Predict the structure.
Amino acid sequence: MYVLQSRYKIENSSLHYYGLRNKENLFNNFIKLNKKQLNVISKLPKDLSSEEKRILGNKIIDIAVVEEKNYKKIPTSLKEAPF
């Protein structure tokens, strides 16, 4: 099962990242999507076929769309936050 990573949101036809980035990626906070990619991402969470993975490409699958086991949950309280 694949899901959209917690700090990514779909806005217009792109994925926007809302979070702190490391210095070299500080201003790389959005990924433009074509119609096919937008269609696949809007249907998440779901199992992706090999064709859907090919449409998304390695960059999007490695960063924004992840397997459910690799999903990073945002803590809702200070007790949940790791320090």
